[in-house]
Amino acid sequence: MNIKHYLSIALLSALFFSSCTKDSPLPVPLMSVTEDVIAGTVNSKITLSVTGKNSPILYHRWKMNDSIKGDKEIFEFTPAATGTYYIEYIAINTAGNYSKTYTINVTPPIRDVTPTSNMYVTQLFEFLPAPGQFINKAPGNMVSAEGILGKKTGMVSLGAWGGTIVLGFDHTVLNVADKEDIIVYGNPQGNFAEPGIIWVMQDENANGKPDDTWYEVAGSEFGKPGYVRNYEVTYTKPNPTTADVPWRDNQGNTGVVKTNTFHKQSYFPEWAPGNEYTLKGSLLPSSNIDMTVPTYITSMPFAWGYADNRAGGDKVDIANAVDKDGKKMNLKGIDFIKIQTGIQANMGWLGELSTEILGVADASLIK
Length: 367
Description:
Elements: H1 3-19, E1 29-31, E2 37-41, E3 46-53, E4 59-64, E5 67-70, E6 74-77, E7 83-93, E8 96-107, E9 123-128, H2 142-146, E10 156-157, E11 164-174, E12 182-185, E13 196-201, E14 215-217, E15 228-236, E16 245-249, E17 254-257, E18 276-283, E19 289-290, E20 298-299, E21 314-316, E22 321-322, E23 333-341, E24 356-357, E25 359-362
Parallel strand pairs: 2-8
Antiparallel strand pairs: 1-3, 3-6, 4-5, 4-7, 7-8, 9-11, 10-24, 11-23, 12-21, 12-25, 13-14, 13-23, 14-22, 15-16, 15-18, 16-17, 19-20
């Protein structure tokens, strides 16, 4: 505590004990906000003030987390992050003091839908695929990733397990009760799906960037045998660069993303950071893949909740988002979406299992 503040409070306490009488009333301020609990949003100013009083107030104190933040009749606070804040106001005169504590619940801002809002994602923030047979050419290059913006007729390949694309909407996609909120369009067939895990994020700090917390949207395989959270795979650039791409995971397994005669370019992303890079996320079970007949390999879709899983588009409910501990989140809406290839599988002559995305839409805007 500032020494001046400490001395001021000590002096007033002494005055209180030495001069308090039945004729010297305690301060009872009239506050501009009378409620104890206030709803706020990130980067939106909250103003609290004293608008009247029954007796003179010698000192005003505004405290947050036991630290004095102001000494005037007006206190302004602009929260820079979500969370719960406790602000205490103290009024002091020679008769004693009055205090009031506010609980401020700060939530992410909602970017409303406007007549010019696009139903599809409009921003590409990151495209970091895993190695794969389409990488470094269409549909596995940056041009292809940008080509899915604003429509559902593009196509981008994410490569093997962990390949990632991060996209943003030009508005907040609201979490509507008992409804699917997002549609991810892929190119699965009835007996051949390449499921990708979906992650969502709120713009908690309101800076327009996906630098807050990712929440996995738990699909039908969440927690089942073969599903692994906190999974990691490191891919190493081969020598020569057109050879099979080695990988190792954090479970002690190793393997390669095999090349084939149909696609002879380097499978290791040309823009990957360094000679090896690590992708992190969740692993889906490969139990739906059947390779008993090599000429007729199938990869059956999961029940629900994944990208490139079912024909016609995969509907996603934001209400299924979970935190790092698997606890369901109550998100008002999301601003960003991340999609990752969810299975690590080499399917012979078909190559690696690789999630493909054609487009992503806000389901509430589809007519």
